[in-house]
């Protein structure tokens, strides 16, 4: 008998935890996984929630177990597997059923899936989910793209399972078709920048100040009660205090310095470039991960060039305070850029993205959750049409208070040969953004010289050419 109110396909890290979260919130959930042994394992570990879980070994049994109209969450590996899963489900589902792709889809795939399902009678939702394993189990941040009526139908269950920030659910409808997955992509792009800047500051403490992991952990731990208070800062101090049982050393010291990436950071950069919106902090972070992966080349280059002597070392609390402020300044640039990219996409795709709402649903549950996002939510609520976060009164004040520290940290790092590409990008971004007369007049002259591209004059209308 069909008694489930919702279904989840894919019982990997995210799907299994999401299903348990749904059951925990009082909903009866049917589950299915391509590999049956995983379904059986899941059923065995559901414990007291088993009463509200129907584990199915075939797709037919899964669909039959859900009361129509059926909401079905697909939480499988992004890309081709999602298309395969949709193709397998389509003949089994009925008009009005809702398919929700909750994986990390490229929003362009989501838009294609929307148009492929148009006229099929099935409703599609592209849903970004952030929070990792713990978020999926205890409350993630949920970013929904689709029609508003489709959202209304699944809103109760999605708000129930989402994280709560001071009681407010971190789940929202953000716009039509690819809006949810686009916002999730930019969330991840910002996450890349946040993590990279934290790693850069860690690098200054380790390689310039000569601090060991536990001492650096103490600094991050202290910062977690100040303006940098965030999940990423918290886990950084926790990570830095963990010891490797095998070697007895801090675990970070035995981890290979080559970062992985699955695509969302790169997609953020590609989309920002397509729209012509600078996202230099995210670009720097993505490039830093790529450079980190070139381990062998880096070793050869170090053997050839060596590393600079650490000179002009400034020590003491003032340096640590500078690092904290530099991180805050870098964060402002990264978030300003991420939100600017979303604003451009909103115009381009007609999504009408609610910026304050996006900041609100990122305040809890997701990986970049922080106090800082509450301030962004307030800034956008006060000025919904703000062109750039740095121009809102509260963030302009933040920049003024941290700008000097950012410059000292970046220049000190550069003088000592320490890579701080994301923090340095923040300085370059800000200096370019706040300068009314830049240097592109020369670029325009060069373009006209070699390509007759023409230029505008300060003192006259129309297109002009130089006397070359
Ligand atoms: P896992 O690797 O833990 O699980 C992958 C799941 O996808 C398994 O259930 C697997 O089934 C299924 N799968 C793979 N290929 C196919 C296919 N061709 N047909 C049907 N099912 C398939 O992944 P996660 O749970 O970590 O990730 C799931 C999605 O959520 C991804 O899009 C990921 O990017 C996204 N995500 C992940 C987060 C995380 O922190 N892990 C955070 C936010 C989003 P089988 O058991 O048969 O192999």
Folded structure, characterized:
The chain contains 19 helices and ten strands. Strands 3-2-1-4-5-6-7-10 form an eight-stranded mixed beta sheet, sandwiched between helices. 55% of the residues lie in helices and 9% in strands. It folds into three domains: 6-177, NAD(P)-binding Rossmann-like Domain (Rossmann fold, 3-Layer(aba) Sandwich), CATH 3.40.50.720; 185-433, N-(1-d-carboxylethyl)-l-norvaline Dehydrogenase, domain 2, CATH 1.10.1040.10; 441-468, Up-down Bundle (Single alpha-helices involved in coiled-coils or other helix-helix interfaces), CATH 1.20.5.320. It is an alpha/beta fold. Helix 5 links the parallel strand 5 and strand 6 (123-130). The mean pLDDT is 97.
């Amino acid at each position: 008998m069909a008694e489930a109110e919702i279904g989840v396909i894919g019982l990997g890290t995210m799907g299994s935890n999401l299903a348990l979260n749904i059951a925990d919130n009082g909903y009866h959930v049917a589950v299915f996984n391509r590999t049956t042994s995983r379904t059986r394992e899941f059923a065995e570990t559901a414990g007291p929630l088993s009463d509200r879980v129907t584990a199915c070994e075939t797709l037919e049994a899964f669909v039959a177990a859900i009361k129509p109209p059926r909401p079905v969450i697909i939480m499988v590996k992004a890309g081709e597997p999602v298309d395969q899963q949709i193709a397998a489900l389509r003949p089994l589902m009925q008009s009005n059923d809702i398919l929700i792709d909750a994986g990390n889809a490229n929003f362009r795939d989501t838009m294609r899936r929307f148009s492929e399902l148009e006229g099929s009678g099935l409703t599609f939702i592209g849903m970004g989910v952030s929070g990792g394993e713990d978020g999926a189990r205890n409350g993630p941040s949920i970013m929904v793209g689709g029609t508003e009526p489709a959202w209304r139908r699944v809103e109760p269950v999605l708000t129930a399972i989402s994280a709560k920030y001071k009681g407010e659910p971190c789940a929202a409808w953000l716009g039509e078709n690819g809006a949810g997955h686009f916002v999730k992509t930019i969330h991840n792009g910002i996450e890349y920048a946040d993590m990279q800047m934290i790693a850069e500051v860690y690098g200054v403490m380790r390689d310039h100040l000569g601090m060991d992991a536990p001492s650096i952990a103490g600094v991050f731990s202290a910062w977690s009660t100040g303006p940098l208070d965030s999940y990423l800062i918290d886990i950084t101090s926790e990570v830095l205090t963990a010891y490797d049982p095998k070697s007895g050393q801090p675990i970070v010291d035995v981890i290979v310095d080559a970062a992985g990436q699955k695509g969302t950071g790169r997609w953020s950069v590609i989309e920002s470039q397509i729209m012509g919106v600078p996202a230099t902090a995210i670009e720097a972070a993505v490039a830093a991960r790529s450079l980190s992966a070139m381990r062998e080349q880096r070793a050869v280059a170090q053997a050839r060039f060596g590393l600079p002597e650490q000179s002009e070392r400034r020590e003491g609390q003032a340096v640590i305070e500078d690092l904290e402020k530099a991180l805050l300044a870098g964060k402002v640039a990264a978030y300003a850029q991420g939100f600017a990219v979303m604003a451009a996409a909103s115009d381009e795709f007609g999504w009408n993205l609610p910026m304050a709402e996006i900041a609100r649903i990122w305040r809890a549950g997701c990986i970049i959750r922080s106090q800082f996002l509450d301030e962004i939510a307030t800034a956008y609520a006060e000025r919904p049409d703000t062109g750039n976060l740095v121009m809102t009164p509260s963030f302009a004040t933040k920049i003024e208070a941290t700008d000097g520290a950012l410059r000292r940290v970046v220049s000190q790092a550069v003088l000592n040969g320490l890579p701080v590409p994301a923090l340095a990008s923040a300085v370059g971004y800000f200096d370019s953004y706040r300068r009314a007369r830049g240097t592109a007049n020369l670029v325009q002259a060069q373009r006209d010289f070699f390509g007759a591209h023409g230029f505008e004059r300060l003192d006259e209308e129309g297109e002009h050419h130089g006397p070359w």
